[in-house]
Amino acid sequence: MIGRTLTDIRAELEELADASGEYHVQCGRTGERPVPVDGRRFPDRETAVQAVRVAHAYRATLRRYDPRAPWYDFVVCEADTGPAGDRGWSFPPTAAGESPSQRALVAYCHDLAGAVFEALSASDHAGVERAVMDEYLAAAERTSDRDRLCLQLLTTMATELQSRLPEQARAETLQRASAHLPATEGSARPVRAALAHLRSVGLIDGFALADGHWDRPRAVTVRGYELRSCGERLPTLPLSTETVRRTAGRPRVATAATPVDDGWRIRVSRTDPAAGSLDTATPVDS
After folding, report:
1. What is the pLDDT of residue 63?
2. Beta-carbon neighbour count of residue 135 at 10 Å?
3. DUF7551 domain spans which residues (predicted)?
């Protein structure tokens, strides 16, 4: 699957966009404006036509990771000046009043899943890659809420990586996946920075330090976590990846999760220097 990633293509689209532009791109059949053209305007018709080509490339790449992603017939339209013309649409299609945070969450799920798929492909873990997709498609058939499909993809990916890859391979996969995500600065408090980012994209509602200090946390609590536990494990792929991206050396990663009244209490500790262990689905304490 090596080639332009979803992040690369979205960056190209951002270069074309102009917040004050008079044109937008939408589906000619449904009127929807899905990712990646949701909420974006373009300065003139010629630029919007370029955006159509970029949007088609994005959707084609997305379908490599999520075969259930719907098809759209993109057309260029002159932007309306009323409220209806400013609707932001996303995949999966939801109500016109959807919040920007929901669109950010959908985009984040696709970016992270795409980055991990690229890492698996580059690492010759094609069997794991196929297993993730097969399990996701099976789980998606049981998912009645279309808004949760992108979350189901991350959940499936986290559990399959945990069960099918040895410790060192998981660590290497997350390190490689980081290279396919937007560049970010390191942090003296990487766990806190990772949680702040997950809050900014809507994957969690809030977080707090539960034990230790932010420079060396031993436990954190998270509220409103969108990924649900699977059996005896809690998918922690996003937290692990975001912490790895912000850490030079051995990151502190989730080692156990305990349900609490308002969410989860997650223990964190430094990775084993010998095994380089990084859990993508953390054991749940009773």
Report:
1. 83
2. 19
3. 105-275
Q: Counting Cβ atoms within 10 Å, is residue 167 exposed (0-12), middle (13-18) or buried (19+)?
A: middle
Contact 157, 110 (CB under 8 A): no
What CA–CA distance (Å, rounded) separates 24 from 106? Answer: 20
For 241, list phi and psi in degrees, rounded to 5.
-65, -45
Angstrom distance (rounded) from CA 221 to CA 169: 28
Helices 167-179 and 100-122: crossing angle in degrees, nearest 10, is 120
DSSP 80: P
Tell me phi and psi for residue 117, to 5 degrees: -60, -40
The predicted pLDDT at position 199 comes to 96
Collect the ranges in the chain with pLDDT lower than 50.
1-2, 81-98, 275-276
Backbone dihedral region of 126: left (phi > 0), alpha (psi from -120 to 50 degrees) or beta?
Answer: alpha
What DSSP string describes 83-122?
A: GGGG----SSP--TT--HHHHHHHHHHHHHHHHHHHHHHH
pLDDT given for residue 99 in this prediction: 56
- Token representation of residue 265: 């209490």
Domains of the chain, residue spans: 6-98, 106-283
SS3 annotation, 232-285? CEEECHHHHHHHHHCCCCCCEEEEEEEEECCEEEEEEEECCCCCCCCCCEEEEC
Q: 199: how many CB neighbours lie within 10 A of its CB? A: 17
- Residue 81: how many other CB atoms lie within 10 Å: 9
Helices and strands: H and E segment counts in the chain: 8, 8
Which residues partner with 263 through β-bridges? 223, 260
pLDDT the model gives residue 273: 55
pLDDT for 248: 83
Is there a cis peptide before residue 70, judged by omega within 30 degrees of 0?
Answer: no
SS3 state of residue 189: coil
